[in-house]
Amino acid sequence: MSPDLLMIASFLLALLMGVPVAIALGVGGVVGIVAGLPLAMLGTFGTNTYNSVAKYPLIAIPLFILTGLIFERAGVAASLVRFAQAIIGPRHGGLTVVAVLVCLIMGGMSGSGPADAAAVAMVMLPSMKKAGYPQPFSASLIAASSSTAILIPPSIALILYSIVVPGVDLRALFAAGLFPGILAGVSLLAPALYFSRKYRWEDPETVERPPLWPSFKAALPALFAPVIILGGLRSGLFTPTEAAVVAVTYGVLVGCLLYRNLGIRDLWNLMTEAAVTSGVVMFIIALAGIFAWAGATLGTFQHLADALLSLSENGWVLLGLVMVLVLIAGMLLDAISIYLILIPIVLPLMNHFGWNPIWFGILLAMNIAIGQFTPPVAVNLMVTTRIANIRLEHTIGWALVFIAAMAASLLVVMLMPGIALWLPEKLGYVVGPW
């Protein structure tokens, strides 16, 4: 068996045996080095793992993770829900609009789907249950809506994509994700509102409408968070990495001084939790460096790309195949692992067909977002079903509805690249030809 096949096979075998993704990547890389390179190349193990994480933009990842935890525990979601309810008012399907809106806004603070799913589900599920919505429907909708956090800036997945793909401007990626993220949210609202009105969920006469002005004042600190982050990036006041520091600082001020739901002990616990989560992420990135170096040195990724090219010379056919491959991966793996594993393989295809890297990155993110609420793994759905105290299989029917809706928005962005590329171009960022 060739070193290429041995490396890929050992990685897949480790995954099937239940080995954590990080270890499986490391094992695959080591097997590739031993099988196809001089044993002295094992001496690069330490250098490659260090080089993988010794990148300045990666500092933003633990800081945005901490930001999401701070806003989640500070009670931001509750204030946003009340404000959204005050704007939309009682009507059939009103709470579905509230859920999607709050998930989109929360995505502009943390960039983490599971964190947003937990924060919004804790607040929305009791209200939606009281209004007559079935728990499987509500859990599926919130899981799907919170997956847009991977698109709405700041997105942890897009930060990683900008590091893995050379020459991609993170600010352009952030801007490019905004309209597709909103489009994905709107696509979820279409079936949600249809079924809400069909089954007469949420009787307007039994739902209380919060007062607008007090709700707006309570939500104002939360609404300012995305404005500060994105406004600072656009004005050049700070870089994306520095934006993460600003976000943490602002979150601490809001949680401790304005909402007063956080204390010193809470901050210590949140920093500990963020450190553990960040450690897992960095461990995956570090060992993926071994896998990436071995694959690049052996030519494995180029060989796989050539094999895909041999299937068809039609760029749209191969783009469709890549999207299907990413969707399947998204059903089983987290976004970070998918980027680290698949980007080296599809990068030659992107260069061969001249796909715009910003647009292609957004397509990957939208596809991975669908995977976050697609069984069997469905990390967002696991979070919401646990909070709703229902079994995951009870949500499959509703999840399929929302999967189809978001897949339609993905197809629209695929056929109309301008949806993703218009805003970064207007803001003056380098987006390349399209």
From TrEMBL:
<feature type="transmembrane region" description="Helical">
    <location>
        <begin position="215"/>
        <end position="233"/>
    </location>
</feature>
<keyword id="KW-0997">Cell inner membrane</keyword>
<keyword id="KW-0812">Transmembrane</keyword>
<dbReference type="InterPro" id="IPR004681">
    <property type="entry name" value="TRAP_DctM"/>
</dbReference>
<feature type="transmembrane region" description="Helical">
    <location>
        <begin position="137"/>
        <end position="161"/>
    </location>
</feature>
<keyword id="KW-1003">Cell membrane</keyword>
<feature type="transmembrane region" description="Helical">
    <location>
        <begin position="173"/>
        <end position="195"/>
    </location>
</feature>
<keyword id="KW-1133">Transmembrane helix</keyword>
<keyword id="KW-0472">Membrane</keyword>
<feature type="transmembrane region" description="Helical">
    <location>
        <begin position="395"/>
        <end position="423"/>
    </location>
</feature>
<dbReference type="Pfam" id="PF06808">
    <property type="entry name" value="DctM"/>
</dbReference>
<dbReference type="InterPro" id="IPR010656">
    <property type="entry name" value="DctM"/>
</dbReference>
<feature type="transmembrane region" description="Helical">
    <location>
        <begin position="95"/>
        <end position="125"/>
    </location>
</feature>
<feature type="transmembrane region" description="Helical">
    <location>
        <begin position="274"/>
        <end position="295"/>
    </location>
</feature>
<feature type="transmembrane region" description="Helical">
    <location>
        <begin position="316"/>
        <end position="346"/>
    </location>
</feature>
<comment type="subunit">
    <text>The complex comprises the extracytoplasmic solute receptor protein and the two transmembrane proteins.</text>
</comment>
<feature type="transmembrane region" description="Helical">
    <location>
        <begin position="59"/>
        <end position="83"/>
    </location>
</feature>
<feature type="transmembrane region" description="Helical">
    <location>
        <begin position="358"/>
        <end position="383"/>
    </location>
</feature>
<protein>
    <recommendedName>
        <fullName>TRAP transporter large permease protein</fullName>
    </recommendedName>
</protein>
<comment type="function">
    <text>Part of the tripartite ATP-independent periplasmic (TRAP) transport system.</text>
</comment>
<comment type="similarity">
    <text>Belongs to the TRAP transporter large permease family.</text>
</comment>
<feature type="transmembrane region" description="Helical">
    <location>
        <begin position="245"/>
        <end position="262"/>
    </location>
</feature>
<feature type="domain" description="TRAP C4-dicarboxylate transport system permease DctM subunit">
    <location>
        <begin position="9"/>
        <end position="418"/>
    </location>
</feature>
<keyword id="KW-0813">Transport</keyword>
